[in-house]
């Protein structure tokens, strides 16, 4: 450990560190001024002549989740390692860690740090994500597709109706207790009452299980065959997400989580972001593969607390049926209720003959239409009526 | 208390806990600035073990709180001993008297009737060295409990309405762990230092197996660690952690195998692979994985 730097150097360091906080904030980390205080304290514990120790100490302070580690390291490289200065052994060269800054800000930062423009980590503005390893890159249209160009004459009215839809998600009994009129006797409050009335337990205080809304997970197909519906369905997902605890995913050939994109208040902004960041919109369909990656990457994180899962797809699957079957089986076992919405179900002549649909059907608790607002209302009623207790299947 | 990153690494090593410098740095900072350490990582990378090793290193008592949905103050912090309180009231009733009654009310909610649960124990105790408090799998609890922890972790104090605020004289070293079964609220994380524990590299994993299971030969440890590293590259529902590597190596050592025959591997792989679907996948892949191993 080094001796604490004298006050002048210390003052310099505080300013530098506050600047670093700004850079992290611009890169999307939630960094408040309090972090700078902690950061200074952390730097006081390590040898700040050693860049690696400095990096590790600051990382522990500024990073809050795994996803932020890469961003932090990129920002650290940019901010603390002067180009040309010897970067500690084992440090990764700057370019391999893109920093998510918008170009405007990136330029401003480079100017401020006295770095040449060539240091701009540009990957995130230009590089399209490359298609996943197997399959449908031919059908998959790897281009940024503007949702706004899709025709949906009644979009405005539909939006309005969806926003008004009165339905709410069913509730479930949680394991937490709260005061209530009936239920288990709660001794603590009974006793306090008793003490007040001179030692006699006049009335028994009781507690019952708290009731909470169930979380909802929407997994929406945005492949080519769903084109006519996907915009309206995303509007639907957005409307629900404004009121309930919802995690939203879209897929065509691979799965993307768009929960954070739908948090934007204006639906148009949310859709624009989605179109920009999800690159396989309008591509082929691989339901099985997509559910597989859901099961593996997200299920344990988002399916807690008796979640209801809503899959929205026409069931035209181009992948292997066996995969779809296996993943549906797994998914149905790990959620409270699995509901499949099929927009095609609305047409009179439709029977679930699509191979994928037929394979998936046995694992669904409900199979409902989703082609118009009425159908979504029906869904709402169904969701509101789910039982509070868990059910055996 | 350790003084440098190197010292943390070496002293944890003495406790059979091998860690990278970046984790050691986080620990050092947490110890020195008195903040809780929030460690996340996949299952079985040694999050809980870290707290145990820290307790041994500091010569402190380990207080463990396992979280679950619905955990509340009564289970986590304190509870009044109702049975004794009732008894006390009855006795006083018998003796009667106005003065006695007033006194009774004071007595009823005194230390004597308090049942100490892990959190209260951690901040209010007679230990000569401040204990290590492990709050395990915080992501299993719910938002209400997180909110309660905010107060505790910021001030190392618990307010008990009937008694007043209990504040820690010497704050415990707090380790929180999470598996990310749920995203923990940022407000809580901001009160902590954060560290993500990754799977270790091959050499490190071999060393960990050897440190944790001395009965396992170098050769076997290397073979099993190599296999598990291979499994982590596969498409499994649940990837095996370091704990699983150790278990698997132990199982093989127990049946006297050196890990070179596929039958022994198959019959013991339940130690590392815990889903039926995964077992099937791994069974088919074992010959390939073995071929990739150095002889």
How would you describe what is shown here?
The complex is a heterodimer of chains A (393) and B (295). The longest helix of chain A is centred in the N-terminal third of the chain and has 20 residues, at 7-26. In chain A, helix 13 (355-360) links the parallel strand 8 (337-342) and strand 9. Chain A is flat. Chain A is of the alpha/beta class and 393 residues long. Chain A contains 14 helices and 9 strands. In chain A, helix 7 runs parallel beside helix 9 (227-241) and helix 11 runs parallel beside helix 12 (321-334). In chain A, 38% of the residues are buried. In chain A, the strands form 2 sheets. In chain A, strands 6-5-4-7-8-9 form a 6-stranded mixed β-sheet, sandwiched between helices. Chain A has a 3-stranded antiparallel β-sheet with strand order 1-3-2. Chain B is of the alpha/beta class and 295 residues long. At the A-B interface, helix 2, helix 3, strand 1, helix 8 and helix 11 of A face helix 2, helix 5, helix 6, helix 9 and strand 9 of B.
From the structure above, extract its key features.
heterodimer; A: 393 residues; alpha/beta; six-stranded mixed beta sheet; three-stranded antiparallel beta sheet; 14 helices; 9 strands; 42% helix; 13% strand; flat; B: 295 residues; five-stranded parallel beta sheet; two-stranded antiparallel sheet; elongated
Helices and strands of chain B, in N-to-C order?
HHEHEHEHHEHEHEEEHEHHHHH
Number of helices of chain A: 14
Largest interface: A-B, 46 and 52 residues
Mean pLDDT metric of chain B: 89
Structural class category of chain B:
alpha/beta
Largest sheet strand order of chain A: 6-5-4-7-8-9
Weakly predicted, low-confidence segments of chain B: none
As a percent range, the share of helical residues of chain B equals 40-55%
Helix content of chain A: 40-55%
Low-confidence stretches of chain A: 1-5, 84-96, 121-154
């Amino acid at each position: 450990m080094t001796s604490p730097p004298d006050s002048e150097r210390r003052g310099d360091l505080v300013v530098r560190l506050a600047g670093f906080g700004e850079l992290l904030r611009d890169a999307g980390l939630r960094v408040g001024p309090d972090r700078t205080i902690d950061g200074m304290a952390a730097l006081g514990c390590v040898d700040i002549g050693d860049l690696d120790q400095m990096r590790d100490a600051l990382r522990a302070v500024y990073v809050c989740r795994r996803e932020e580690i890469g961003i932090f390291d990129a920002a650290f490289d940019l901010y603390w390692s002067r180009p040309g200065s010897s970067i500690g052994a084992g440090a990764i060269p700057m370019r391999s860690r893109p920093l998510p800054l918008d170009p405007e800000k990136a330029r401003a930062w480079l100017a401020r740090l006295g770095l040449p423009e060539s240091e701009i980590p540009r990957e995130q503005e230009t590089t399209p994500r490359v298609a996943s390893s197997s399959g449908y890159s031919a059908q998959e249209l790897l281009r940024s597709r503007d949702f706004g160009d899709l025709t949906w004459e009644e979009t405005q009215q539909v939006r309005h109706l969806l926003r008004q839809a009165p339905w709410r998600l069913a509730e479930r009994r949680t394991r937490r207790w709260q005061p209530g009129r009936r239920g288990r006797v709660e001794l603590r409050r009974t006793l306090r009452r008793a003490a007040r009335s001179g030692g006699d337990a006049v009335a028994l205080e009781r507690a019952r299980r708290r009731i909470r809304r169930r979380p909802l997970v929407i997994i929406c197909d945005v492949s080519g065959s769903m084109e006519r519906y996907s915009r309206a369905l995303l509007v639907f997902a957005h409307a629900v997400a404004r009121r309930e605890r919802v995690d939203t995913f879209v897929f065509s050939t691979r799965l993307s989580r768009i929960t954070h994109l739908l948090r934007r208040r204006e639906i148009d902004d949310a859709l624009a972001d989605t179109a920009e960041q999800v690159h396989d919109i309008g591509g082929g369909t691989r339901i099985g593969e997509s559910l597989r990656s859901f099961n593996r990457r997200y299920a344990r994180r988002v399916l807690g607390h008796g979640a209801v899962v809503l899959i929205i797809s026409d069931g035209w699957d181009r992948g292997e049926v066996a995969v779809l079957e296996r993943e549906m089986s797994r998914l149905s076992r790990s959620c409270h209720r699995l509901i499949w919405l099929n927009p095609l179900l609305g047409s009179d002549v439709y029977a679930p003959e699509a191979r994928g649909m037929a394979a998936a059907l046995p694992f669904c608790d409900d199979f409902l239409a989703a082609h118009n607002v009425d159908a979504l209302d029906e869904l709402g009623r169904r969701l509101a009526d789910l039982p509070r207790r868990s059910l055996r299947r | 208390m350790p003084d440098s990153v190197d010292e943390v690494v070496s002293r944890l090593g003495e406790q059979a806990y091998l860690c990278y410098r970046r984790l050691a740095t986080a620990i050092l900072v947490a110890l020195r600035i008195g903040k809780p350490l929030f460690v996340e990582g996949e299952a079985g990378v040694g999050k809980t073990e870290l707290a145990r090793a820290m307790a041994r290193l500091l010569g402190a008592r380990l207080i463990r709180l396992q979280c679950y949905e619905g955990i509340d103050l009564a289970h986590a912090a304190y509870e009044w001993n109702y049975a004794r309180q009732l008894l006390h009231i009855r006795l006083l009733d018998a003796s009667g008297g106005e003065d006695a009654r007033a006194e009774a009310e004071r007595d009823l909610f005194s230390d004597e009737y308090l049942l100490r649960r892990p959190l209260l124990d951690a901040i209010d105790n007679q230990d000569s060295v401040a204990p290590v408090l492990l709050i395990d799998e915080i992501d299993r609890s719910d938002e209400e409990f997180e909110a309660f922890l905010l107060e505790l972790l910021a001030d190392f104090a618990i307010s008990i309405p009937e008694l007043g605020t209990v504040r820690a004289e010497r704050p415990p070293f707090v380790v929180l762990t999470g598996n990310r079964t749920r995203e923990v609220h940022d407000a809580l994380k901001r009160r902590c230092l954060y560290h993500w524990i990754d799977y270790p590299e091959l050499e490190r994993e071999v060393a960990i197996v050897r440190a944790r299971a001395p009965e396992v030969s170098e050769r076997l440890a290397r073979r099993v660690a190599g296999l598990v590293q291979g499994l982590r590259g596969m498409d499994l529902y649940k990837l095996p952690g370091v704990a699983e590597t150790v278990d698997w190596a132990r199982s093989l050592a127990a049946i006297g195998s050196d890990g070179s025959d596929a039958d022994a591997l198959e019959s013991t792989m339940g130690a590392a692979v815990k889903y039926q679907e995964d077992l099937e996948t791994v069974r088919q892949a074992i010959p390939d994985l073995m071929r990739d191993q150095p002889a």
